[in-house]
Amino acid sequence: MRIKLLDIVQVTALGFGLAGLGCSAKGSVKIGGETEKAEKATKAEKPEKAEKVAKAEAPAQAPASAEAEGMHKHKMDAAPTATTPAATTPAATEPAQAAAPKGKKSKRAAFNRKTKRVDIEDKVQFEVNMAEIKAESNTLLDDVAQVLSENPTISVEIGGHTDDTGAAEHNRKLSASRAEAVKHYLVSRGIAAERLTVKGFGSDKPIDPEKSDIAREKNRRVEFLVTSP
Fold first, then answer.
1. pLDDT tier at 207 (50, 70, 90 boundaries)?
2. C-alpha to C-alpha distance for 162 and 172, rounded to whole angstroms
3. Which of 37, 65, 129, 184 has the highest local Cβ count within 10 Å?
4. What secondary structure letter does DSSP report for 153?
């Protein structure tokens, strides 16, 4: 009888244990099902969140892309287009004249020691029937002044000459006035006045005695005769 009661108690305890295990299993199954549901929900939310984030970031990235595209287009527009220069036929040009050596002034006046004159390569030009020197002759007289500066011991007679047209007395006065105008110019360029004398010869000393226009052109002139030393 004692054995049977013991067995009944053991069996009953075992039954309760099994029942508890069943409840635990049920609870585990229930909890496991809820966990599985939560995981599925989380997995379902992740793509939705990722999609929302992607949509939210897309507008921010679009302007950057548009800006980058605009900058690229601007660079392409600003880049110079390489062009092949058109072939041109060289135009015929006259040979260039040799320039005077740098630092050396081209002089049209020189001291001729043999003839005792300051020779000039051109004529001093005056206004018609006047003692006014034309501007085109200024550089020529500058060269004369330079020669006199380089030879400070010489004195010069400035002789004025005309052609044979007009009254002789008028021509002498005109030639003397022209010589005086030349003296005044040389003094303005630093030549001492006492080194310069003037004389008007009119038409008394022609180079060419002919009565042609060419001869008269030659006879209208200014000469520089060295008087000392």
1. very high
2. 8
3. 184
4. T
